[in-house]
Amino acid sequence: MSILLAERAGSFGDRTAIIAPEGTFTYRQLLDASARVASFLLNGSLDLEERPVAFLAPPGFQHVAVQWGIWRAGGIAVPLSLSHPRPELDYVIGDASPVAVIAHPDVSDPLLAVARDRGLRFAHGTDILEHPLEALPPVVTSRQAMILYTSGTTGRPKGVVISHDTLAAQITSLIRAWEWTENDRILEFLPLHHIHGIVNVVSCALWAGAVCEILPAFNAWKVWDRIRRGRLTLFMAVPTIYVKLIDAWVRSSPADRKDMSDGCRKMRLMVSGSAALPVSTLEKWREVSGHVLLERYGMTEIGMALSNPLHGKRLPGCVGVPLPGVEVRLTDEAGAAVAPDIPGEIAVRGRTVFSGYWRRPEETRKAFRSGWFMTGDVAVCENGVYRILGRSQVDIIKTGGEKISALEIEEALRTHPDIRECAVVGVPDPVWGERVCAAVVLEAGRCLDTDSLRVWLKQRLASYKVPRETVSLEALPRNAMGKPIKPAVKMIFQHPDGRL
Ligand code: AMP
Fold first, then answer.
1. Taken in order 190, 194, 196, 200, is the CA torsion positive or negative?
2. Which of 271, 295, 354, 377 has the most ligand 1 atoms within 8 A of CB, as the residue to mutate?
3. Confidence band (pLDDT; 50, 70, 90) for 481?
4. Is residue 500 part of a domain?
5. How many structural domains comprise the chain?
6. Which of 91, 164, 253, 346 is most exposed, with the fewest beta carbons within 10 Å of its own?
7. 249 lies in the same domain as 289
8. Final residue before a domain boundary, out of 334, 367, 391
9. What CATH number does residue 415 fall under?
10. pLDDT tens for residues 447-475?
11. Tell me, what CATH number does 292's domain have?
12. Is the pLDDT of residue 1 over 80?
C-alpha cells in the first residue's frame, strides 16, 4: 500500500481521527471502513486502475471513509457538491464518467436518479462501510487521486485532476508552514467538494495524526458553541464565515462574548483564505478573538501558494510569501517576469500544481506558459511580500469563497423563455466578498418576476450561483464590438440611482 495518507494512518492506530455526527472514530477504524469501501468498489476486480468514482455525502466520517476507500481501490475520487441540484450533478457525472456513484442516504435522491438514468452502479455509503474485506491493490503515488470541479472563464466547470504525489506535496507544504502536529485539533465545517476543506483541513489533520472534528454544515451559533468549549488548536475559514461569526458575536450578551473570545484565544492559529479578506474584517476579528488572521492565497489548480507567516508579522491586505516547495512569479502579458513593485499575473510552478483538466488537453495546454500555471490573478510584490490586486478575468465571481463563472449563469438565464439577453456580474459585497447580480433584457410584453425566476434557476443551478439581485433593462450596455460592458453593468448595481 503506498497511498501516503493511509500508510501514515497505520502508525496512528487507536488515536482519535474524526469526531463527527456519526460518532468518534480512530485511525484504525478509518482504515478498516475505507478498506471495506474499497472492497465493495473492486467488486471482484483487482484494481480500479484510475477509474473515477463519484460520491456525495455531508461532511462527516462517511465522506472521509468513502474518499479513502476509492483511493485504496486504485480509483480517482470525485467529490460532488451538496448544493448542486440534479442538472448540475448530471453534468459532473457526465463529464467525469465514473464507474460507480456513492451517496449518503440523507442526500441520495437526486444522485440516485442520475445514476439510474445513466445505468451506473450505485450504492449508499452507509451500506458499503460494512462490506466484507477483500485484498486491496498496491497503489503507486504517481496515480491520479482526485478530480475537483471548478469554474473557469469558458463554459461549464472543469475537472482539476490531482495525483497522490501532488496531494502529498500540497499537504506537506502546509504541515511545514503552519507546524501541524498530532496534538492539533481542528473544526471542519467547510464544503468537502472544495480544496479548502478537503486538503487544508481534513487531509492535513489526518496526515499529522491530529483530531478532525466535523460539523455537517456551517452554522455560526454551532461553531461558536464548539469554540467556547475549548481544546481546538486550529481554525480555517473563508472571509464570509468570519463576517458571520462576528455578526453572531455582536448579537451575543457581554458574558457570552467573553466566553466566545476566550475560546478563540486558546487556539494557536486562525487562517483565512479562498477569497480576499477585507482589512476591516481582519481588524474586527482581532477585537473579537485576539488573533491576527493569517491570510493565505491558493486555488484548486495549484493548492496553496502564498501565505503570511506563522511566526512574525502578518501584513493586513497581503498574502505573504511563497509556501515551502512553491515557486511564484509575476508576469506581464508576454509571460515575462515583471520588475519588483510592478503588478503582474501570478504564475505558479512546483510539485503542488495539478496534472491537468480532466479530458481537456487543449484547455490544459492553454492554462500553462513555459511550465508555469497562469492563475488569472493579478498581484504586486512589495519588499518580497505579495498583495493581490484582483483578477484579470472579469467573468469569474468569488462569492462566499465559492468560485463561479458568470458565463455559466448567463447560459442558464438565456434558456428562460422570457429572457432575451443578459449579463451577470460580481458586485463588491461586505458579507459575500462579491454578490451575483444579473441584468436582463426581457422578451417583448414580459415582466420581470424575480421570485419565480429565482425558483426556476434553483432547479438548474446551485443556490449560491442564483443572482441575489436582478434588474430588467431596455438594452444592455455594449461596446463597439457588441460585447456587454461588464464594468458598466456592475455600476448599475453599485449605484442604482445612476441607472442608465
Ligand atoms: P478556488 O479554486 O475556488 O479556491 O478559487 C481560487 C481563487 O480564489 C483564486 O484564483 C483567487 O481569485 C481567489 N483567492 C483565493 N485566496 C485569495 C486571497 N487570499 N485573496 C484574494 N483572492 C483569493
1. positive
2. 377
3. confident
4. no
5. 3
6. 253
7. yes
8. 391
9. 3.30.300.30
10. 989 999 999 999 999 999 999 999 999 99
11. 3.40.50.12780
12. no
Cα of 403 from ligand 1 centre, angstroms: 8
Q: What residues make up the domain containing 445?
A: 396-492
Mention every residue, 6+ apart, whose C-beta is less than 8 A from residue 218: 189, 190, 241, 244
Q: Which of 384, 375, 320, 380 has the alpha carbon at shortest distance from 347?
A: 375
**Distance separating alpha carbons of residues 358 and 149, to the nearest angstrom:** 9
Report how far ligand 1's centroid is from the alpha carbon of 294 (Å): 15
Residues lining ligand 1, Cβ inside 6 A = 150, 195, 273-276, 295, 297-300, 319, 375, 377, 388, 391, 398, 403
β-sheet with 16-20: strand ranges across: 23-26, 16-20, 211-214, 185-188, 234-237, 269-272, 294-299, 303-307, 321-322
Question: Are 15 and 151 in the same domain?
Answer: yes
Residues 6+ apart with CB under 8 A from 92: 54, 78, 80, 84, 149, 157, 159
Residue nearest to atom 10 of ligand 1 (CA): 299
Q: How, if at all, do strands 269-272 and 321-322 pair?
A: unpaired
